[in-house]
Amino acid sequence: MCSRGGQLAGGASMYDEDGLFSDRKLITMATVIGNRYPELGYELGLSPELLFQVKMATPDNLQHQVYNMLVSWRAAQGPGANMNTLNNALKCLHRYRTHQITFIQYHNSDTEHPR
């Protein structure tokens, strides 16, 4: 469980000494992000070409793809690759997905819609 200031339980930090996410933290995050990682990577500023390369490097291992996407993000953004930036990107994806589902439900319902 995380506490304030980037400290994990037991006093361990989720950041390396240089202030970037540790590899250990990226591995942990890779286990929970899942198959929408390309959308997240794009939201984090990574190019579609780079995301394709990440996928092709380990096409049969989703966790490695997610981890490599996060490593690429950390390398590209440096100190900007932080929990705040990641949370904001996840919120944007959630809002987009929520609006998309609402739109699909609205247009696929059996009722008349006001125009």
The count of DSSP E runs of length 2 or more, i.e. the number of strands, is 0
User: In percent, how helical is the residue content?
Assistant: 55-70%
Class by helix and strand content? mainly alpha
SSE string, helices as H and strands as E: HHHHH
Rough outline: globular
Write down the Rg.
Answer: 17 Å
Mean of all residue-level pLDDT scores: 77
Largest sheet: none
Taking pLDDT < 50 over at least 5 consecutive residues as the criterion, the unreliable ranges are: 1-12
Q: How far is it from the N-terminal to the C-terminal residue, by CA?
A: 49 Å
Strand content: under 5%
Report the total helices.
5
What this model shows, in words?
The protein is mostly helical. The protein is 61% helix and 0% strand. The chain contains 5 helices and no strands. The longest helix has 26 residues, at 83-108. The radius of gyration is 17 Å and the shape is globular. Mean pLDDT is 77; it is low at 1-12.
Key traits:
5 helices; disordered N terminus; mainly alpha; 115 residues
In brief:
This protein is mainly alpha-helical and 115 residues long.
Secondary-structure map:
Blueprint: H1 23-33, H2 37-43, H3 48-57, H4 62-77, H5 83-108
